[in-house]
Amino acid sequence: MKKIDLNCDMGESYGAWKMGADAEVMPYISSANIACGFHGGDPATIRRTVRLAVDHGVAIGAHPSLPDLMGFGRRVMRVSPQDMYDLVVYQAGAVEAFARAAGAKLHHVKCHGALYNMAAVDEALSEAMVKAVKDLGSGVVLYVLSESKNFQIAKKSGIAVAGEVFADRGYSDDGTLAPRDKPGGMIEDAAASVRQALDMIEAGYVTSLSGKRVPVAADTMCLHGDQPGAATFAQHLRKAFSEKGISVAAP
Predict the structure, then answer these.
(1) Alpha helix positions (H), the chain
(2) What is the pLDDT of residues 28-82, one digit of tens each?
(3) What is the per-residue pLDDT across 110-144, written as a single tens digit (0 to 9) for each?
């Protein structure tokens, strides 16, 4: 039986500003990437999201970002490898503390937005991210873009790593995510998302926006919580996985 982890970026509300449909999506996923306060999230939101994950048996992950609340962590910044290390350890530590207070543990780390994409193609940033996760200890899993430079470096390091694919994003020919503002960069049709998801899990490839088949290793699949209709997407994905005999569980 094939298996996939279905993860979602969550806890991205901040103060009076609300983002996503966490309560509606949580029952359909197996791991949650919880914002740590740098692109979204705040202490109370982290606490509530951790509690929601615990109540649904969902694995708890930290979702570190560049310090960019106004840009939602999606603007590129110039950071050093030491910055990468510090950003990951500091932010993951916040989620880990709330997980421990809830009687759970930190399961994984998945960086957010520009920080994630920068490490996907940068060796020094990738090595710093890997070191940060290794130093967090307790078998914390690192989620990184499948078949990227970051993925290869993490695999060689010996830490637990999951290659991530995206059900609701378009891909470029080199296997990186297409820009969100490019036509096709965001998949807004649930049926199209399901087709892409099944291709990645069952056939091991994704079709880029230009039509090229790009190999992927689908260990964990992301569904964005800020995507309009995220709960509907999640329902469609779970229904398709059930029909195909694909089990859903955290790595």
Answers:
(1) 22-25, 43-55, 81-101, 113-121, 123-136, 149-157, 190-198, 230-244
(2) 999 999 999 999 999 999 999 999 999 999 999 999 999 999 999 999 999 999 9
(3) 999 999 999 999 999 999 999 999 999 989 999 99
Class level of CATH domain 3-248? alpha beta
Give the residue among 182, 180, 210 at the shortest CA–CA distance from 74: 180
- Distance between CA 119 and CA 81 in Å, rounded? 10
CB-based contact 30:248 (threshold 8 Å): yes
User: Encoding tokens for residue 138?
Assistant: 């307790």
Taking the domains of the chain in order of start, what are their residue ranges? 3-248
Q: Which of 171, 181, 168, 116 is nearest to 145 (CA)?
A: 116
CB 230 within 8 A of CB 8: yes
CB-count burial class (<10 Å; 0-12, 13-18, 19+) for 73: buried
**Contact present, 2 and 248 (Cβ < 8 Å):** no
Which is it for strands 3-10 and 220-224: parallel, antiparallel or unpaired? parallel
Pairwise CA distance, residues 29 & 12, whole Å: 16
